[in-house]
Structures are given as structure tokens and as C-alpha cells.
Amino acid sequence: MEAALIARLEKAVERLEKLEVGPGARPTGASAAAHGHAAAPAAAAAAPAASSGSTSATLAEWDHLMSEHLGPVLALVQYLPQEAQASMQNFDKAFQAARRVLEVSAAAKQPDSPEQLQTLLAPVAEAMGAVSAASEARRVSCPHHLKVLAEAVAALGFLAYTGHGCGMPPPRQHVADSWQSAEFFSNKLLMEFRGKDENQVAWVRGLKSFIQQLEQFVVRNCPTGLRFNPAGQPLAAAMAAAPGASKPAAPAPPPVRKPGAPPPPPPPPPGPPPKPLSPEELAASSSGRGGAAGGGGGGGGDVSKLFAELSKGEAITSGLRKVTDDMKAKNRPDRSGTVPASAAPAPATAASASGKAAAAPSGPPKLELQGVKWAVENWSGRQDLVLENEAPKNSVYVYGCRDCVLQVKGKVNAVSLDKCVRVGVVFGDVISGVEAVNCSSVQLQVTGAVPTLSIEKTDGAQLFVSKRCAADPNFQVVTAKCSAVNVVVVPDPDTNSEEDPQEHPVPEQFISTFQGGKLVTVAAAHSGA
């Protein structure tokens, strides 16, 4: 086994040395004198060959990681929605570009400026940006798939780590944090497709396993960031000499055509873009009214109400009053009694028919530390809010937010949500407790330990707790005046088990009886027939 491994490494070293010597040769059109000095670039390229063994081993391990762990995930792309398939392609491109970064860094010196490092990481950042932009798109059929990919691809940020003062966590922690954020959305996919579509479940689990293996790769090969070669070439020369330097920008070669053959037909022109909906059409579609429903009766009523009236049959005329001859305007000499147009009541608008819709956030968005309290207020449509807390005595107060996801990093004293709609909060250890009041459709995920989760006057709450919390006998979930509250126990992310999350609904119906003169209340239990 060891002999075979040594033989593979020696072959890889030989190939790498050929690649290093090849770019150092002069162009074919150089003078004869240049050929006499061709040995000089070869000698210069042989200097970093001393570390080529470790470089080849790192790239070989990276290739094994891609083929054995990312390959099965890519094989399941065909079962994903169309938007997720396109985002998965950019996800793959990001990791392909990361391989070239590892290859170039092994042959190059430490960059002289951050701008040079940014140039090296530009292809990776471009692919990561495409994945992130797809997750921010509106009206997509698979938002959770796109969010998982956007959070997972952020693990490649470890390539930009340059030391303790760069403002980033160490590479291993950065990779672990990326999946911690992605797991918030992956748990939703597991709950949605478990027992319904095993391909989707396998894709989520495979992606999780891949990020975990990436973390181990970083520990072994890049614990302090990219490794550069002190005896290597300048970064610009190493990037130009890399085998895949021109591959991303190279256009596809034109098809070879035999002499005398007719030219290939031009591609069909793109079709016209769909006509954008007018504000009136948008309002009509959101309220469930068609174009014909609003014009027949003059009042623009709902289609369902129209069919409900028609289903009455002959009873539909029971509310009509008989019109006598003296009531008819045509029999009056002065034509009095006609109803002016201004007297007709204005039709109800879509906004008034929407009922008790929650008001939009008022006031400017805010995320700032006020004394010992973090104020997170009036945010809307932000899925990437991150709060970096350093002092455990600080608390977090989230107010008036809508359609947002907040990640709290660091230990905090307490977390409170007030008047929030469709807001998700991911947090670690909490000293005091977490509460949600006057909220709707909120989601809370505990990755550490918390003594109490208090939910009050809230319609819809998903509570994702760790096994550490579930195993603590002092952990409590307190609810009052709530509905649709579920507690989901999430498996430990550090283990590679394929255990599914366990969902436990909080009872909403109770039965009270007198037993021995005392009122005893228990949760109602229903057994299926």
C-alpha cells in the first residue's frame, strides 16, 4: 500500500516538474541565442520543486474530495428544481476555481498586496456571487435549495484568510460556521421531503457530508489559510503559468466544416420577453380575481362569491323587491329618482379585502449596540443579517422585522423577538432565555444551550433545538396564547449519522376535569380510527 502511494506521488511530482519547466521555455519564434539560455528558466522552476511533493499530495486530496464527496451530490442535480440546477453549476464552478487557487499558491510567493490576492481569488468570488445572487431572487420555486447552496458555498471564504487581524475567523471555524447557517434551511428541506422524495433528502445529506469533509481537508492542509511558496515565482507569473489560467476565459472552438459544405444555420433569435404585468393585473392576480370576474356585475366581486350566489338557484331572487309602476322613473314627468353616478359606493380595493395584513416595518433599519442591548429593528427582506457579539452580558432585541434571517454569533444573555413576521434567528449559547411575543411564522434555531424558550401570542413557530438541549432535563418550552408551535430536535452536526430531525408538536387543545376537588388539566390526545 505504501509502495503504491509513493509511486503515485513520484509520478505526480514528475508531471508537476514538466508543467513547471514547460512555461519557463521561450516562445518558438525566439532567437537562437535564447535557446542557449533555455536551461536558466528550467533551473529557476526547479527551485520550488522541493515542496512539490506536498503540493501534489494536497491537490490529490482535493481531487479525491471532489470526486468522492461532491461527485455524488452533483449526480443528484437532475432531481432538483430548475433554479437549483443552475445554482449547483455555479457551486461546482466555485470549487473548480478553488483548485486552481491551491495550485497557484503552491508555486507562488506570498502576494505583496491584498489586491494581488483578490485577483487570484476573483474567479472563486465570481462563482460564489452567482450562487448568492440566485438565492436573493424573488418568485423562485425552491428558495430553500438556493439558500442552502448560498450558505454552503461561503465555506470557500477560508481561502481569503490572511491572519488574526483580517477580520475573519480561522479557516476551520469559517467552514463550520457556513454549514451551521446552511443547516437552518437544510432542516426545512429534510422535513419537507422526508418520506416523499428520497432524492432530495440524499442531496441534502450528501451536501452536508461534503462540507464536513471540506472542514477536515482545511484542518490538514490550510489550517492558517493558503500556503504560499517562499522560493516560488511572483504571483502574477505563477497565475500566467498555471495550466488552467486561460481556461475560464477561452471561448468554445467553432465547429470544423468540410470544404464545400453549407454553413451551419444561425441560432434562432431569442423570443420576446414576457410582457410585464400592470399594477392592476398584479392586484387582480394576488386577490384571486380574473379579468372576467370584475366586469360582469359592476362591483368587481370575487369569483367564489359569484358561484356561491349562482348555486342558490331560484332562491337568488328572494332578496329582490317588487318595483311598482309609480316607482319607475319613466312614469315620472320630472324624471326624478334617477341615481347619480357619484352615489354609487366605491368598489373595495384589494388592499382592503386583504383583511388583517401586518403593517410594513416603520422607521429606518437598525442594527446597533445600545449599551448592553443589540437593537435589530425594521429590517425587511434581508436573509444575511449577522450580529457579532463579544460580551456575554449583551442581549438581542429584534423588533418589527419581516422576511429576514438573523445569525447571532457569540454567547449572549437573552434574545427577544417582538412583532416580527416570517423571521428566522440562529443563535448559539444563551444565558437567560429566548422569547417571542406578538409574532407570526417565526423560526428559532438553537445550536448551543439555552434554558428556556418562551413563546407568547404567536401564530406559527418552528423551534429547532440541538440534542444537547433535548437531553437537558432543565430545558423548557413555555407557550401561552399560541398556535402551530413545533419543536424539532436536530441531530448533532459533528456526527456523520444520517439521523432525521424529530418533530414534536406542542399541544393546543386541553381537557380540564375535577379530580378529588381539584381542577386537573391535561393535553388532549386523539387516536386515529
Describe this protein's structure.
The protein has 529 residues and is α/β, with parallel strands linked by helices. Among the domains are: 54-241, Adenylate cyclase-associated CAP, N-terminal domain (Serine Threonine Protein Phosphatase 5, Tetratricopeptide repeat, Alpha Horseshoe), CATH 1.25.40; 366-523, 3 Solenoid (Pectate Lyase C-like), CATH 2.160.20. Helix content is 37%, strand content 19%. The strands form three sheets. Strands 1-2-4-6-8-10-12 form a seven-stranded mixed beta sheet, with no helix packed on it. The chain has a seven-stranded mixed beta sheet with strand order 3-5-7-9-11-13-14. A hairpin with a 2-residue loop joins strand 1 (366-370) and strand 2. Residues 288-300 have a biased composition (Gly residues).
